[in-house]
Amino acid sequence: MSVDIQLTVNGEAVSESVEPRTTLVDFLRETLGLTGSHVGCEHGVCGACTVMLDGTVVRGCLTLAVQCDGAQVETIEGVSDSGTISDLQEAFRRRNALQCGFCTPGMLLTAQELLARGDAPTRDTIREHLAGNYCRCTGYQAIVDAVESVAQARAKG
Ligand code: FES
Ligand code: FES
Q: Which atom of ligand 1 is nearest to the CA of 38?
């Protein structure tokens, strides 16, 4: 049995039929071809599958596609194409805040959620906010450096 859903993904209206058990991240990757959201642990631990759902980061592996009927979903492709996070992407590149890149889309979306609040967060706040996103390569220091530098730059306007 399939269920018809309608949602907005990266600003575009999407209508599809999905099986009730299909996760949001599988729907994005396999049905829509948006493979920037990654699948790691598949049980809500690593954060590789992070996407924005109505403005809040969620685990794409713990969210069912049918739950997103009527919702606004934004993926790493959307925020990259719009230029919303170009400063964050450049800071990650400049500070070597990625190596294999597997965690990076989730890191960027989670960092953007924090920075979009408008105030310049402390390093502790940045670490706390990113605590649900695992990176097996960088040791986190460079990631926090990158996010902090963007927070300071954005605060200066
Ligand atoms: S794949 Fe979703 S949290 Fe790891
Ligand atoms: S850069 Fe490899 S997991 Fe983070």
A: 1
CB 146 within 8 A of CB 130: no
pLDDT in tens, 32-89: 999 999 999 999 999 999 999 999 999 999 999 999 999 999 999 999 999 999 999 9
List, in sequence order, every residue forming a beta bridge with 7; answer none if it has no partner: 14
State the pLDDT confidence band at 119, using cuts at 50, 70 and 90.
Answer: confident
Q: Is the CB of 38 under 6 A from ligand 1?
A: no
pTM: 0.97
User: Positive or negative, the Cα torsion across 134, 59, 61, 17?
Assistant: negative
Return the H-helix or E-strand segment holding 127: helix 123-129
